[in-house]
Structure formats: C-alpha cells, structure tokens
Amino acid sequence: MSTRRPHALGGRTEFRLRTGQLGSVIAPGNELLDQAARLFMGRPAEEAYLRSPTSLAFVAVVGSEVVGWCWGYHLPRPDGTSMLYVHQLKVAEAHRGQGIGRELVTTFMTAGTAAGAGTMFLTTGADNTAARALYDSLGGGLAEQGPTVNYWFLLKGRP
Fold it and tell me: Start and end of every N-acetyltransferase domain (predicted)?
C-alpha cells in the first residue's frame, strides 16, 4: 500500500462517550483506514479510493480500538457548487448509542463545509429508526420530491 492519504480535511477531534471514556475521530492514514475497511467491509481499503481526490473518510477510535467510520465523497456539480455524499456510517454494535455516529457525521459535515460543499445527502433504510433519528437531529430532512427509492446497477459484464 502506498503512503498516500484519502482526501480528508482536519486531523483529530476528541469527544467524550456517555461512559466518560475519551474517543477520537481521525482523518485516517492508509493503515487506520485499512483497519476500518477490514473491520466493517471484510476487506482492505483499495488503492483507488485512497488516491481519489474526492474521497472523504473518518475513523472513530477509543484507545487503539477502531469503533466506527464514516466515508463518502465530496462531489463537484456542474453549476459550480459541490455536495457531500455519505456512503456508509457504521459504528460497532458494542459502541452504539454513545454519540460516536453523531461525532463521525458532524466531522464529515464540518470537513465538507470547509471544502466548500453546500449540501449533503445519504440514504438509509426506512425502518432504521436510530439512524433516521440521528439524521433528523442533525438537521437533515427527507428529499423534497417526496418518497424516493434507490436503484443499484451491477455494471460488471455489461456491453
């Protein structure tokens, strides 16, 4: 793996868990991002993501343990503005409900705002009440066009 870092603004943000324990949200280097990818995706972080100038990732640690991550992209738009897309927010089951997800999303939003993004979007399951409560509490709202559905296309093997 190279020594390049994913595009991420900031360095380290410390926060206190509800248990009183100190945690950190970090703009990770390759090794920490790789550790988080192995934990939450079951495979290492790929070089293409690490090299992409639009990649944005943060990892939450408590002590030396990776307990969560938030990754996505800072996307330029044709109208000259830019926006954030959160592809995945994940907190280890044993650490949920302690404010780690909030810290990760807030750090992601702060970094994106500093980079010039004016909006952020993400998708979550309609029945994921914990995630929806978090996003609502952070000022998120449902898409203005009304209920939406997500389509995924498998492109491998297409002509």
Answer: 15-159
Burial of 132 (0-12, 13-18, 19+ CB in 10 A): middle
In a domain, 18, yes or no: yes
Residue 149 domain flag: no
Quote the distance between the C-alpha of residue 139 and its chain's center. 17
Q: What residues pair up with 85 in beta bridges, in sequence order?
A: 73, 121
- Whether the Cβ atoms of residue 56 and residue 71 lie closer than 8 Å to each other: yes
Which CATH number do you get for residue 79?
Answer: 3.40.630.30
Query: How much is the pTM?
Result: 0.84
What is the per-residue pLDDT across 5-21, written as a single tens digit (0 to 9) for each? 334 444 566 667 666 67
User: How far is C-alpha 54 from the geometric centre of its chain's CA atoms?
Assistant: 13
The total domain count for the chain is 1
Give yes or no for a contact between 98 and 60, defined as CB atoms under 8 angstroms apart. Answer: no
